[in-house]
Amino acid sequence: MARRTIAGRGWRFVATGVIVNAALFLLLWLLLRSGMDYLIAVTIVYIVGIVWGYLQNRIWSWQSTAPAGRSFWNYLVVYAGIYVAHIGFVTGLVEWLEMAPFFAVMVSVLLLITPVFVALDRLVFREQMQ
């Protein structure tokens, strides 16, 4: 079945990421322009992104039939770990390299694309591998 191939999941994951992240970057830009502290803005956007991203990835990227409660819990655990890495990258880029927060978030997202895909594929939506 085509929807079960890693290439198909990967393509849909990237397309979902572009759509979701474009909207989330707009939200981040608006929050930063309003004068909000970058760590608070990043956290707000991250929480919105978790919920929206879960729905998009479950329904379209992986076309998952796993019980929603279990897959959402696993998704939250994965994204909690990714959040620690994300905030670490963003803080390091902003504080040590003096990069603008908006661009630091972009760099972090690009660095984390592959680990996120692998974690979602292997830990959250793994029923598609059967």
- Most strands sheet: none
Shape: elongated
From the alpha-carbon coordinates, what is the Rg to the nearest angstrom?
Answer: 15 Å
Using DSSP, what is the number of strands? 0
Low-confidence stretches: none
Strand content: under 5%
Query: What structural class is derived from the secondary structure elements?
Result: mainly alpha
The ordered string of helix (H) and strand (E) elements is HHHH
Tell me the span between the first and last alpha carbons: 11 Å
Q: Classify the helix fraction into a percent range.
A: over 70%
Count of helix runs? 4
User: What would the average pLDDT be, to the nearest integer?
Assistant: 92
Q: What does this molecule look like?
A:
The chain has 130 residues and is mostly helical. 81% of the residues lie in helices and 0% in strands. The protein has four helices and no strands. It has helices spanning 6-33, 38-61, 68-96, 101-124. Helix 1 (6-33) runs antiparallel to helix 2. The longest helix is centred in the middle third of the chain and has 29 residues, at 68-96. The chain is elongated and about 40 Å long. The mean pLDDT is 92.
Layout: helices, strands, pairs:
Elements: H1 6-33, H2 38-61, H3 68-96, H4 101-124
Helix pairs in contact: 1-2, 1-4, 2-3, 3-4
In short, what is this structure?
With 130 residues, the chain is mostly helical. The chain has helices spanning 6-33, 38-61, 68-96, 101-124. It is built from 4 helices and no strands.
Features of this protein?
130 residues, mainly alpha, 4 helices, elongated
